[in-house]
Amino acid sequence: MMMNIEDIKEYLPQRYPFLLVDRVVEIDLGKSILAYKNVSVNEHFFEGHFPGRPIMPGVLIIEALAQAAGVLGFKSQEKKPKDGYLYYFVGADEVRLKRPVVPGDRLMLHASIITSKRGIYKFLCTASVDEQLVCSAIIMCAERKNEID
User: Fold this and answer.
1) Which of 22, 23, 30, 136 is exposed most, by the fewest CB atoms within 10 A?
2) Where in the chain are the domains?
3) Catalytic annotation on 49?
């Protein structure tokens, strides 16, 4: 099942410039997701990271993985931010950054559910560019229901 940017915005509360998932290529509900972020030279963070040698910050690669994992969690349960649900990024273990991500790269984001208990999810995540591993991490998210104003 493919999801375009408008579909993704139904499941993630983030918006420009912090929405870091452009497309979902495939999703196996309750199991895994494959998505991507097209990395453009116009990204706001490249102005300062680093002038003359633009590199996507590692923390934003991890955030992109967490957002892809959030889409998987939300879509698997058909819960949406508009209904008062949020996924909070609560931790990352075994993080490894292997190579820089630069303008023009397509950052492929893969997340698989390891466990899900009482609203706490653990995902095995990898990011790659041209089939080369860029980042791996175990990411934890907590699902919470908020009161809608």
Assistant:
1) 30
2) 5-145
3) yes
